[in-house]
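Worked example 4.2. Below are the chains of a multi-component assembly; read each line carefully before continuing.
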Amino acid sequence: MTRTAVAPPTKGDTPRKSAGPLARLRDPAWYQTYGVYMAVAVVLLFNALFTDHFMTADNFRTQLVQVAPIVIVALGMALVIGTEGVDLSVGSTMALAAAFLPLYLGYGLVPALVVALLAGAVVGAVNGALVSLVGLQPIVATLALFVGGRGLALVMADGQLKQIVNPDLLSLGTGSVLGIPLVVWIAGVLAAAVAFLVQRTTFGRQVVAVGGNRSAAALAGLPVKRILIGVYVICGVLAALAGILATARLTASDPSSLGTLMELSAITAVVVGGTPLDGGSVRVLGTVAGALLMQLLRATLVKHDLPDSTAQIAQAAIIIAAVYVARERRSR
Amino acid sequence: MAPPEAIPQAPEAAGRTASAVLEARSVSKRFPGVVALDDVTFSLRAGETHALVGENGAGKSTLIKVLTGVYRPDGGELRMTGEPVRFARPAEAQHAGISTIYQEVNLVPLMSVARNIFLGREPRNRFGLIDFARMHRETGELLDGFGVRVDPRRPLHTLGVGTQQMVALARAVSVNAQVVIMDEPTSSLEPREVETLFRVIGRLRGQGIAVLYVSHRMDELYRICDRVTVLRDGRHIHTGALADLDRMQLVSMMLGRDLSDVRRSGVTSFAAEGHEAARAPVLTATGLSSRLQLHGISVSLYAGEVLGLGGLLGSGRSETAKALSGALPLDAGELTVDGTTLKRLTPAAAIRAGISLLPEDRKAEGIVPGLSVRENIVLAAMPRLSRAGVVSRAKQDRIVDIFMERLRIKASSPEQKVGELSGGNQQKVLLARWLCLEPKVLLLDEPTRGIDVGAKAEVQSLIDDLAREGLAVLLISSDIEELIEGADRIVVLRGGAVAGELSGDDVAEDRLLEVLADHAPEPADRAPATQEDPR
Amino acid sequence: MNETEPVTAAPAPPEAPAPRPERTGRQRAAELLQRQGVLAVLLAVVIAASFVYPTFASLDNARGVTIQASFLAVVALGMTMVIITGGIDLSVGSVFALGGVLAAWASQHGFLAALLLPLLVCGGIGLLNGLLIARGNMAPFIVTLATLLGARGLLLALTDEGATTRLVPEDSAFGELGQGSVWGFGHPVLIALVLFGAGGLVLQRTSFGQTLFAVGGSSDAATLMGLPVARTKILVYTLSGLLAGLAGALNAARLSSGVTIVGVGMELDAISAVVIGGTLLVGGAGSISGTLWGVLLLAVIQNLINQIGSLNSSYQSVVSGGFLIVVVVAQRYLARSRTST
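Applying the procedure described above to all three chains together yields the following structure tokens:
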């Protein structure tokens, strides 16, 4: 993330001419943007040909339900990464939301949901304040919340697993509309909402600008601190929502293990989806595709009886590949 | 100013053609869309001080980067004392005996003076570990020879820019170089330090070390350099003794313009006539102070007038511009626009009051490279072009079209990523960003730095037009000619405070240099920030 | 904590140009606090705890705390150097676990094999990190994130998906390395101390150490000054891998088995210790000793919470998290008052 003093000048007025269609395949920038969609297509094709029972509605439903929480968290993570930040606390926020739920369900579903989401917002606000007002590195600030958040969740739940019996909450987890599970609908709607936010609203464009060049954004009068706090709050709320939905599906609130390693999955989805780590652009559809790709990859390996270890190594290789095509090119 | 010292001439250099210690033969360097160097041949003799001149964009820094191993040439070759050499990285050039000091101090700020000087070649004790005692001692001796008294253990960033530059020079010289390349070395030095530098150059000459001196300061070049090489648009134009060229001839070669043309209309594209200033000031700043950077700056800007802000690097010009636009946190001071005093000093408040700042470093503080031309232009105006938080494309497109045409911004479309544009067009995009806010006051910090000649001319005439249309313009430029010809009035800063003001006929090069060099003794109650420039 | 310049009063030079006035008393105090603050806090906590909980102040407890901390310490040593260059290594937890598994497996072939195999493989992983980062020009965060996953995957593959736990042969020299002690303090503790001593020496007194600071302080300046930036980066990540592997091997020796589930989240503990110890995450400044105090502080806190007994062990996380925030925020303000001129 350092700007190099040895970068070549961009002199000359000749704008880039468009080359033929196949030339695009040789352009690494194309891969960064569209590579993930190609990869998803390849995996689907592979499975269509070689995996039994893959192209069934049932399987698709299962895959989508499993990936939905990751998508929701990754949406928030994409916004944070778009400002050149990162949020390591999302898993703990999920656990925190899960811990709050059983305590307030006695008052009804809506109050409990509000409290849980509020908890996520508060975590996000603290993260945002530490980053923008105190000036901490995002890794450090969210690391602290990562550690403290799960601890707090465990304290509140006394380290215990609690069964969920509230029928409304349970139906959130298992219900379907038009044959598509509710959680998938929610993830889809949120993805569309975040995409709209990023592309068409002032706030969204300002988020991208802040990530692209924070000093320039500040000098242009953008409310940088407010924007930073905003993205972390959104990320916190989305993580809390994912925690609620996961709890509903599990029919139990388990703060000790909920959301473990979720930050890794979310960051992976964002990076593989083509959003650069040093900020300046947010690819919402790419993030969704990135999460899908990783999910399908895992599922493919499972269905072919390949062990977890292979899945992890494959994941690692894909991340490297995704970053490789995205790296800044230096000319000497 | 003290009369120039006699610079000792190296015996070999006088009367006999010394051998070339460093040569570039038919060197070319291309970047996507740009030919930075085109078949350039040039040679440096042992013991000579050789000037390298050219406008911004002429290829000077590219040539230096090729000579120092930062870039590899696409064509041609380099030779040292007749033998072909190839540098894959800066370390190799340094080992071959080529040392460089840059305009921006390229040392490690958090490390101490001594560590910086000896980085990569620390003296060892018999166990192979770094001998700090010897390192500090040798640093002290080295700096003493330069007339610089600094504790070798002090972190570099606590020193003023001028002193940091002297440390960089000490390092460059101490590495037993055969060639020392100096890229605009005096831009951050006090006159006293400039004398030190020239003394050192004299010593280098006596040792047979060649100095390649890049600068646009004519006085210095004519004082210490033997020969000069002129580059223009990446091509080699001329090499010869400086004594055979007068200033005007040199300048017209640099610009590629006819000598009589230059004599008549000046060096820049500013109109010869000045502007009509309004009576009452549109912006008044009183007593702007910021810890160790600014001390009680008071200045007024009038509609229709171009106010130049002069001073050496580190004198506080950029900080003043930032303070005037709310981007610098202040300890004291007030800003009044059209009679109303601003309550809060933030960039957003300044923008609302009609003040716009074009910052010095367009890469770090100006353009958002990943966004399109359109989005860069509307960045500051976005809230005004949106409805209920949703962006209105139609409104944006209208504004963008107007300004792309007016400023003649060359891009394949408004959606092109601004990082792909040339420096000149990027600068125009930034100007458009501020102009579309319809400001009353426009603060320009080095608006033509690092852009090609053509764009430079366009920007200069644009500034003229804007002043004529009634904008109050503040112009900061380290290009003396640009400052003299562009400004109606000049305020000179030194050490973060106002040192003088020039108006009318006094807006001329000799008067400006006088004020810049004038060293009035510091009153006791002022913070001691003049000997060492505040950061 | 900045080891790049010792705290000495510079004599005011007699003649012009007068350098800027010596840092004010307040700035010097801030500097001292930032450097040695962790040590001060550690001592304060230890002393206070010794009074309140007599069981804390026993030699036995000290032995327990230090042996627990020694493994994280070795890992954090490598992490310190990586962070000083402005990078980060998220893979150390997985590499730690991998080192243990490899050591346990190789221990059947003797002491040397048990040490060499983990060093070779884990050093190799570090080398891979370094190459991708320095030559591939990719961000350390994401490269080491990928290695985190890959190394853990490799570990699973080697242990039948985590099912197999190999045992270190009884009465082996290797086992003795992990379980033996000198004056009651385990071998790993002594090894950690020796490594820290060596590390401090390397950081402070060798060209390599200076280059680490230079690369972290300004990578561009370091390149222009002719320093071997790429080679240094590759070396430092390799070192990080080696140290993590060594720590894992020692842990296996102590547990007498290659436990597969260790090391999860260890990288974050290491980062916490390093940051608490005063090393700046942006690079360019830091100290080995600070990391040592940071590691000890975290270990002491964990130990205290266990001592207190009535407290839910989850409180440890909360306290650690809160601690991290407090320390880092304090450092931020101290750094500001120190570098503001």
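Take a moment to check your reading of the output against the notes. The two ends of chain B are 26 Å apart (CA to CA). The CA atoms of residues 106 and 215 of chain B lie 18 Å apart.
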